[in-house]
Amino acid sequence: MRKMLLIGLLFILSSAVRADLKLFVFDCGHLAFADISNFGLSNAETPVRELFVPCYLIEHDNGRLLWDAGLPLDVVGPRDPEATSWYENSILDQLLAMDLTPRDVRFAAFSHFHYDHVGAANAFRDSTILIQETEYVAAFEHAEDNPVFRPPLYAALQDANRILLNGDHDVFGDGTVRIISAPGHTPGHQVLMLQLENYGPLILSGDLYHFEASRRLRRTPVFNTDAGQTLESMDKVEALIRETGATFWIEHNQELANTLNLAPAFYD
């Protein structure tokens, strides 16, 4: 009986916290490819050639978390029809439209430090950075080993307040926002799990997969740092999806993006 009362109390408390959790989705650019073979797929295995680049803002009673920071800000501007990447309205301007600045963001975390996920990272130098220790070493000490890292995009974070992670991390200490370690794409790649009261549990993929076909066929890009580790991370996250019933968003999925409500609308 005592155990049942305790479980009930924990459920009530966690539900109360979840009621105030909000997720905002931002359009932070697009990428187009004529050939997708570098992603471990043949052109015949999927017709998809365009990838969405999102940024996310999570609002919690105890602060805000930025998850991923989009394409580099020097890409922002009117779309060139011949361009293979474009970004029409910067994340900074989109936040400003909501009366927010980077100083209003308590935490900043990036699924990984490839250039299309840290484009506005320097603007969040006053936030506390949540980063796997392996990713920190790769990005700040051995960036030359990974050509998809562009240190000038995140150089200001080297001296920022940071929490070095070595595995999964409960951001606010109540289970509503959890960073899940999922290395392989980069040494410290991670995904984000949210417990939204109305939408339900949700996992943001980072670059665990780029295409639906990547997930279906269990393919890894040729530029991943460790293909075997990536497959282990896929298994870990897929098990988490099964255990929790979470919805899974492949962040780069343009077809999914077309169905999402973008900020200032939100999910809760």
Q: What is the average of the pLDDT values?
A: 93
> With helices defined by DSSP (H or I, 4 residues minimum), what is the helix count?
6
* Estimated helix fraction: 10-25%
Rounded to an integer in angstroms, the radius of gyration calculated over CA atoms is 18 Å
Largest sheet: 7 strands, mixed
- Order of neighbouring strands in the sheet with most strands: 4-1-2-3-5-6-7
How many discrete domains? 1
Task: Indicate the low-confidence ranges by residue numbers.
Answer: 1-19
Classify the secondary structure makeup into a structural class. alpha/beta
Secondary-structure element order, N to C: HEEEEHEEHEEEEEHHEH
CATH class: Alpha Beta
What does this structure look like?
Helices cover 22% and strands 24% of the residues. The chain contains six helices and twelve strands. The radius of gyration is 18 Å and the shape is globular.
From the structure above, extract its key features.
22% helix, alpha/beta, 12 strands, 268 residues, 6 helices, Metallo-beta-lactamase, Chain A, 7-stranded mixed sheet, globular, 5-stranded mixed sheet
Task: Give the helices and strands, then pairings.
Elements (H helix, E strand, L loop, with lengths): L1 H17 L3 E11 L17 E11 L2 E7 L15 E2 L4 H6 L10 E3 L18 E5 H8 L21 E4 L3 E2 L6 E5 L8 E7 L3 E5 L7 H6 L9 H18 L2 E3 L4 H4 L11
Parallel strand pairs: 3-5, 5-6, 6-7, 11-12
Antiparallel strand pairs: 1-2, 1-4, 2-3, 8-9, 9-10, 10-11
